[in-house]
Design a protein that fits this description.
There is one protein chain. With 379 residues, the protein is an alpha+beta fold. The chain is built from 13 helices and five strands. The longest helix has 83 residues.
Length: 379
């Protein structure tokens, strides 16, 4: 359903949209009106009094046109309408046929933005112009029919035509405003997407690391009495892991982070083995370097999900040239790993990220086994 005109006009005010429309208005609307007004003044003014009358009406018209794309244009348009009406009455009484120009322009700017009763307002303005022009026959009693045509019919028709052009102009400016607003929304959306991407990457780094630290500290606690040397080794690994996480976080902040699939694969194996999970890795071919980083993200996210949400005993990882598949047992029948139209939040974000590169994340759950796989299309 089309929005009322007054509602659309509110979108013209504020920010870059208004600045763009004001510049466009000063280029496309104000100069043509000034040219027409000056042309009528030069052609039809027969005395200095006519020059003064038409100049005042032209100033009122240009003032309204200049403020048309501003939020306070009514503050200027309403007084200008009164001034233009007085100018047209003075022009009709002094036999100046061009003095109606200012009133027709100001009136045409006032009609389109009205929220309702625009036809009634248009008819009333036409009657006003015709009535003021008809005052010419009060001081000139010759050729009454011709004078009514010149001072009543022609100005009223000219006002109707100029108002029709203003309806078209307003629709054009509405489209420009909608386009500018769409660009602003796209820019805001791009910023939001970047923030979500950054938050996801930060979660990949620190969430994963904190879970590993939790596992290693728990293991060190168990080994503290029986194998103190092994416990100290685990704690040293925790120290190194925290230091590495700090470095990765800095790299992320400066957009320098790159995942290494081989390092992620080795890290996943170590984590699974530390948790007592048997890992089998199958390499069907060497992984394409172009897909390696995103495949590393898939492996990292899946590893975290298995450690958190499954009671796995076996994990199989299969690598192809442009794909990866991870299968684990111990997936619960219900709970976070149950799909049912919903999936783990990390996988949902990862699915969107992969889709941007033409890949699709496949997840399936059957018989207590959970499978996560993705394959990139050939370049």
């Amino acid at each position: 359903m089309e929005m009322p005109a007054i509602a659309r006009r509110t979108s013209w005010t504020g920010g870059k949209v208004q600045e763009r429309l004001r510049r466009l208005n000063l280029i496309t609307t104000v100069p043509p009106l000034a040219i027409v007004g000056v042309f009528l003044l030069l052609v039809n003014a027969r005395s200095w009094w006519h020059v003064v009358i038409q100049a005042v009406g032209l100033i009122a018209a240009l003032a309204t046109a200049e403020r048309w794309t501003a939020g306070d244009y009514l503050r200027v348009a309403r007084p200008s309408l009164v001034v233009a009406a007085v100018v047209w009455l003075a022009g009709a009484l002094t036999d100046d046929t061009s003095a109606f120009f200012g009133l027709s322009v100001v009136g045409s700017f006032l009609i389109p933005p009205l929220p309702r009763h625009r036809l009634a307002a248009l008819a009333g303005l036409a009657v006003l112009i015709a009535g003021l022009g008809a005052a010419n026959v009060l001081v000139h009693d010759d050729r009454i029919g011709w004078r009514l045509f010149q001072f009543a019919a022609v100005p009223a028709a000219a006002m109707l035509v100029s108002t029709a052009f203003m309806f078209v102009s307003q629709r054009f400016f509405d489209l420009i405003a909608e386009l500018e607003q769409s660009r602003e929304r796209e820019a805001d959306l791009a910023v939001t997407r970047e923030r979500v991407r950054f938050a996801s990457d930060l979660h990949d780094i620190q969430g994963h690391t904190l879970h590993v630290v939790k596992l290693k500290v728990a293991l060190a606690e168990k080994l503290l009495d029986r194998e103190p040397d092994r416990a100290r080794e685990e704690l040293r690994e925790v120290h190194d892991l925290v230091g590495e996480t700090i470095v990765r976080t800095k790299e992320l902040a400066y957009a320098q982070r790159r995942l290494n699939l081989s390092a992620e694969l080795e890290n996943a194996k170590n984590l699974f083995e530390a948790a007592g999970i048997h890992v089998r890795v199958t390499r069907e071919s060497e992984v394409d370097a172009a897909a390696g980083e995103l495949l590393g993200q898939v492996l990292r996210e899946t590893t975290t999900n298995i450690l958190r949400h499954a009671e796995a005993r076996q994990v199989g990882i299969t690598l192809t040239r442009r794909g990866i598949a991870i299968v684990n047992d111990g997936a619960p029948d219900t709970g976070p790993l149950e799909l049912g139209g919903l999936e783990l939040g990390g996988l949902a974000v990862l699915r969107q990220r992969l889709a941007e590169h033409g890949a699709e994340l496949e997840v399936s759950h059957q018989g207590g086994r959970f499978r996560t796989a993705t394959t990139f299309p050939a370049p």
